[in-house]
Predict the structure.
Amino acid sequence: MLEIQEVAKKIGIKGNELILYGKYKAKVDLKIFKRVNRRRDGKLILVSTINPTFEGEGKTTITIGLAQALAKLGKKVCLAIREPSIGPVMGIKGGGTGGGKSQVLPADDINLHFNGDLHAITSAHNLLSALLDNHIFHGDRFHIDPRYIVWPRVLDMNDRSLRNVVVGLGGPKDGIPRQDRFSITAASEIMAILCLSQSMEELKKRLAKIIVAYSYDEEPITAEQLNAVGAMAALLKDAIKPNLVQTTEGVPAFVHGGPFANIAHGTSSLISAKLGLKLADYFVTEAGFGTDLGAEKFFNIVCRYGIKPDVVVLVVSLKALKWHGGMNLDEIKKGKKSVRAVKKGLENLEKHVENIKLFGVPLVIALNKFDGDREEEMKIVEEFAEKNGIPFAVADVYRQGGEGGIELAGKVISTIYSQKPRFKFLYALDLPVKEKIETIAKKIYGAGRVVYSLTAEDDIRIINKLGLNDLPICMAKTPYSLTDDASIRGRPRNFKITIKEIRISAGAGFLVPITGKITTMPGLPAKPAAEKINVDEDGNIIGIE
């Protein structure tokens, strides 16, 4: 690895703008914006994918490999990805730093505890929980209805046993007994607030708006009313600064913020995006999961803050196409050939192509090449792209690093300069809440109708009463299907989406409809990745993949 000061110089970050965390990691002081704010933005490349398998399609690896390929072509480039959550690292997903010769480094540090950001968010969130219960214990002058406390506690770990808990047991000195719940830290509204705030001043304003509970008169109780904002901001003062690291080929990389795309907005911080666009000619970033989640939210939430993509790279793999074409995972892992399944799976790819076109952004299809992929099957995807007039490239960045992404980088650059984006939002913010939800469900997912539980209907009533109906929508939905049922593959049509409840994230500035069986606290699989992780005699961590 290069020392981090050398990496910073590649995109013009000065030494006095770095806060060093050892030799290979740093944070960037926000004062840098005073120096670079007037610069013209570089080109924004957004990486998305189709509905993935449970093991993912290598979107992060492609993001990193594409940035390395652009650097090999002599371009001034940097990238931004999200910080991994320890829960998924120990669960089914494993590490979140890319793979092979297209990783961000130091990978183990980034996957575990990285610069303390997730710890800070967890602490700030749980401080607010503690202040809320403390307020109730000491007299409750706001007359909080304990049945309508909406602020959970959080933990950066997959632990299904904490989804529903009882707190305050033990006796008069141990708090007021009530039902509570835990979410994973990535689902915390504070994570979303951090990732959408552009300054400490804005961060505090957003923290102040957090609704933690309601009184018996249905009046919202906020973090500001609990006098929590100053202390929360103190815990977050370093976490708001973007983290700078490097790829395996020394390309500057921001790794900052970690909201999940299935239960939050799914992109790294707005600060890192705006900084990257000022510092580089090409800025590559990813949106979590498929276009139905991360990309849709990037377009309809993040882009409302003054940025828009010049091109989308849509990642696809043969294994995902076979999965959507009806093959089971055991057959796919064994490398079984199936032209029929690949062709059938193209229906899912077709829908994601349509989704990107709804926003008026040009796209390139990138086939992420895995061991055992056959030319005959790859040719089917290439022919689909040619038939639809979409630039296509096979990327082998896992094995070859930037060299394996040269064709893709060339297609991306060509598309940027030959196709001008005509970006548009999917919906206007002043539409009724139901109309915004149904626009996403019908146009992006392909649903035929949306049904609402009594709880969701009451949530909409409260949203309208509080005047928050003009906020954008951040759907919580399974990433593995276009529907709200993870078992339904391919491209289903005219299905039903069920809205169980709608959570208000007033500080983050969006509404979160909860669909299907989605949960904000994941569980561990039958064979967690944690079982394979260890430390050798030299202190090296092994087993994180």
